[in-house]
Design brief:
heterodimer, A: Uridine Diphospho-n-acetylenolpyruvylglucosamine Reductase, domain 2, Uridine Diphospho-n-acetylenolpyruvylglucosamine Reductase, domain 3, Alpha-Beta Plaits, 7-stranded antiparallel β-sheet, 5-stranded antiparallel β-sheet, 17 helices, B: about 350 residues, alpha+beta, 3 domains, 8-stranded antiparallel β-sheet, about 25% strand, globular, binds flavin-adenine dinucleotide
């Protein structure tokens, strides 16, 4: 199977080849008990990749500490030897953020899996970073509360990984992303110092380090404890399933809903190839004639939902929906969602491999993007199915390919890179919620200037002066950008001058 | 490049070379907040106006010197608003100053804080380089979140040129209630209500009266009014009350006595401190008037899981903002250096270096 490792990434980032494996393992042995340390090849294999399995790399060692003191000891040891450290949650990341470093250590937080406190009165939970996203909502459920951000991977992904990627979910339009639902992060710096950011109150003094931690891809500190805000469960949720005979009309309907002053609890879109793919085995009851469908959810009190659903129906009808169905009960609502939630597995069923993109663009450009993707399907000779968080313009095109066929992986990657470049050109970003990792590191050169990239490195240096936490991820070296041919000079010619306002 | 921006870039570069401090200033309405501003004034009001506004994208991009009143008007024309209801604290408040101060108004606990609505910005760093972070889309994890770092940075990191903010439709219904209850009961009730799916938008308790604001869909507000009881406030009275709370023109905030802001867990018990108290944000933001021993107050507040700011007046030599732990203080200093290596912007505004 086609895959990428460090050597194939082409550009050498920091050179850590000086790290001596024997010395490193010796140092780790004094930091953690034997059952917390893996060094044999067969034990290291399971950690060689995350959810983006085209990139694989076996690390020198994996540590699975149980206590914060052990995390401190591991980090101090690595800092002393100047060895790279890659934190890892569940490894469901889709951008290679947890991809190991050939000369470094993977620090798995898998054993930090305890919910330390659920305070129903204050609506707060204190959890360890290895706790699964859904487990928090399950623990809060008896109190009528839940943890709002709900990535599709929520049965597996960890809250530590969610903070590191600023994960979103279908309900983020109304309830916010991870960054809006976390009150405090406690972490350990590469130097082994404890850093407490945030608290149980609404804000903290000093610069907003809590915001900075979100989406920082394990490059600033290793999180060891997280305090999250819990939200009261809405009494009721109902979902409108609207079909359209034209993708652009569906896109316009999204804008019309927002223009009407409605913020749905969820607003998702799937194109025809996507509905066809999922319908085969979930039988969500989607209209397969439709060029696109929208799922538009309302939640709240029964009175509120009734009122909002009616407003949604009127807007969707006026936007040219060919069919509108409203969930009559919870079973039907879940059935509507089952198709959307099965999109990734469905892609896996109809294709040997798939590659998930994550660009975010202004909602009004969605139709344009879909058209362009159709052109790219021809250009690269690959199919693409489209599901997305339409409410926030966050698209997840799934490019279908077969890595065993020579050249297809390369074409899939080139296809993906095209989509990302276009996302930036349309006024958007290369990643909405999956992170840059190793995957989109080249496209960072298109989105940011050399001065901006320099600022990112200096900010990282404020936490990790030696650049040991997850090196080679998220922020490209200028050297890499030069090789990629996308060195953007500050204040000079931008790729899209029309976006400049001066 | 625009000549105004070029002029500022040059000025900042020169200031770095000559060791001159610059006070980034909009309307100057928040000069009272933080330590006294120092340095030559760089007036941002020369850079004003709405750069782009797309109601269906829920995004507005503003030049930093744009008056807050203008922003509110532009949004109101399309039935939208800045839901975190930032205080203006005076006539000439600019959006740049609002973001830099990072303050949120009455609805903060229901809708999120100012920083939650910051999507992107364009800045000039301490070396005179123009840089852009974030963007105009709702979700963006490309690079570190520098835009949100600007919120509350009080002009100490960079000159903000433009800022993109998420906006929201104004709630269809907005209705306020009054309850006569003591502080402890109010705190307890607010936490109980907070755990239920009620459309509570804001709260204010002072001198035995709790005011509760409900906002959202008409049906939800009506249902809540029926179930919560209390005494209804007229629309005009309600509008006035929440404006007075937001702008601190309510009698509680009058006079010269020092004003302390406590940021606390919502369920923290009433502090054992003397002096008049008001409470907002479901119990998470509390105000104290009068002279307090800063060290003792901060110790008590920290023990309860919060922090204390000397918000207005008083003896600032005790430090306006709650002291940071040594590790966090070091990271803060390094962040400052990362964006402003020569220490040009607002030296000492947040923390005085001893
Ligand atoms: C089928 C599927 C569906 C998905 N759907 C969504 C979705 O809807 N929305 C969404 O946002 N994402 C989605 N994802 C992506 C992924 O689940 C998220 O990015 C998730 O937040 C990763 O969590 P994790 O525990 O698996 O982290 P990992 O993959 O293990 O790590 C991700 C990053 O976090 C860092 N990290 C992990 N733990 C820590 C820690 N304790 N301290 C510091 N850094 C740490 C790692 O170094 C790495 O950079 C999906 C993935 C899959 C496979």
């Amino acid at each position: 199977m086609g895959q990428r490792n460090e050597a194939q990434l082409g550009v050498k980032e920091g050179d850590f080849s000086y790290v001596d494996r024997a010395r490193l393992i010796e140092a780790l042995k004094s930091a953690v008990p034997p059952e917390c340390l893996l060094v044999q090849q067969e034990d290291l294999r399971p950690y060689e990749c995350d959810g983006l399995s085209i990139y694989r790399q076996v690390p020198m060692a994996v540590v699975l500490p149980r206590t914060e003191e052990q995390v401190v000891a591991v980090l101090k040891a690595c800092h002393h030897l100047k060895a790279p450290v890659v934190a890892r949650g569940a490894g469901t990341g889709l951008s290679g953020g947890a991809l190991p470093h050939a000369h470094g250590v993977v620090l798995s937080l898998a054993r930090f899996n305890r919910i330390l406190d659920v305070d129903a009165h204050a609506r707060i939970a204190v959890v360890q970073p290895g706790v699964r996203n859904l487990a928090i909502s399950e623990a809060a459920a008896p109190h009528g509360l839940y943890y709002a951000p709900d990535p599709s991977s929520q049965i597996a992904c960890t809250i530590g990984g969610n903070v590191a990627e600023n994960a979103g979910g279908v309900h983020c339009l109304k309830y916010g992303l991870t960054v809006q639902n976390v009150l405090r992060v406690r972490g350990v710096t590469i130097e082994g110092e404890i850093v407490e950011i945030g608290g149980r109150g609404p804000d903290t003094p000093g610069y907003d380090l809590l915001a900075l931690m979100h989406g920082s891809e394990g490059m600033l500190a290793v999180n060891t404890e997280i305090t999250v805000r819990l939200t009261p469960k809405p009494q009721l949720a109902r979902c409108v399933l609207a079909s359209f005979d034209d993708v652009a009309k569906a896109g316009d309907a999204v804008a019309a809903v927002i223009a009407a002053g409605i913020i749905p609890a969820g607003l998702e879109m799937m194109d025809q190839p996507a509905t066809a793919a999922v319908e085969q085995f979930v039988h969500a009851g989607y209209n397969l004639e439709a060029a696109a469908i929208l799922l538009c959810e309302s939640d709240g009190t029964p009175e509120e939902v009734a009122e909002e659903i009616e407003r949604m129906r009127v807007v969707l009808e006026a936007s040219g929906a060919t069919e509108i169905r409203i969930s009559g009960d919870e079973a039907e609502r879940l059935k509507f969602w089952a198709g959307r939630k099965a999109a990734f597995p469905a892609a896996g069923r109809i294709s040997a491999d798939y590659y998930c993109m994550d660009g975010t663009i202004p909602r009004k450009r969605v139709g344009e993007m879909l058209l362009a993707i159709q052109g790219m399907e021809k250009k690269y000779g690959l199919r693409c199915i489209n599901v997305f968080h339409a409410g926030d313009g966050n698209m997840h095109p799934l490019i279908l390919f077969d890595a065993n066929r020579p050249g297809e992986l390369d074409r899939a990657e080139a296809f993906g890179a095209d989509i990302l470049e276009l996302s930036v050109a349309l006024g958007g970003t290369i990643t909405g919620e999956h992170g840059v990792g190793v995957e989109k590191i080249n496209q960072m050169c298109s989105q940011f200037t050399t001065a901006e990239i320099g600022a990112f490195f200096r900010l990282k240096g404020a936490f990790d002066p030696d650049g040991l936490l997850n090196p080679g991820k998220a922020i490209p070296t200028l050297n890499r950008c030069a090789e990629y041919g996308r060195l953007r000079v500050s204040n000079g010619q931008l790729p899209h001058p029309e976006l400049e306002r001066f | 490049m625009n000549s105004q921006i070029r002029e500022w870039c040059d000025r900042i570069r020169l200031a770095g070379q000559s060791g001159t401090a610059l006070e980034l200033r909009g309307g100057g309405t928040k000069a009272f907040y933080g330590h006294a501003p120092e340095g030559e004034v760089l007036d941002t009001r020369a850079w004003r106006g709405v750069d782009s506004y797309e109601p269906t994208e829920l995004v507005i991009t503003l030049r930093a010197g744009t008056p807050l009143t203008e922003v509110a008007e532009v949004l109101a024309e399309r039935g939208q608003e800045l839901p975190f209801e930032p205080p203006a604290f005076g006539e000439g408040a600019t959006i740049g100053g609002v973001v830099a101060a990072g303050l949120s108004g009455p609805r903060r606990m229901a809708v999120g804080s100012l920083r939650d609505f910051v999507l992107g910005c364009r800045i000039v760093d301490g070396k005179g380089e123009v840089m852009r972070f974030g963007g105009q889309v709702m979700k963006n994890v490309a690079g570190y979140d520098v835009s949100r770092l600007m919120a509350g940075s009080m002009g100490t990191l960079a000159l903000m040129l433009d800022v993109s903010l998420k906006v929201l439709p104004r709630p269809v219904a907005d209705f306020s209630l009054r309850f006569e209850i003591d502080q402890a009961t109010a705190i307890n009730r607010l936490n109980q209500w907070g755990g239920q799916p009620l459309p509570i938008a804001a709260s204010f308790w002072h001198e035995g009266a709790l005011y509760l604001r409900l906002a959202g869909a008409g049906a939800a507000v009506e249902a809540a009014v029926r179930s919560l009881g209390g005494e209804a406030l007229g629309d005009d009275d309600a509008t006035r009350l929440w404006r007075e709370v937001r702008e601190q023109t309510h009698p509680f905030f009058g006079g010269e006595a020092p004003l302390w802001r406590l940021s606390l867990p919502t369920d923290a018990p009433p502090q054992a401190v003397t002096g008049a108290t008001a409470l907002e944000w479901g119990g998470a933001q509390r105000w104290l008037r009068g002279e307090h021993d800063a060290v003792a107050l901060r110790k008590a507040v920290a023990a309860a899981g919060g922090h204390a700011t000397l918000f207005r007046g008083g003896d600032k030599s005790v430090g306006v903002f709650h002291p940071l732990s040594p590790v966090v203080a070091r990271i803060n200093r390094r962040i400052k250096t990362a964006l402003d290596p020569h220490g040009v912007f607002g030296p000492g505004r947040l923390y005085r270096e001893d």
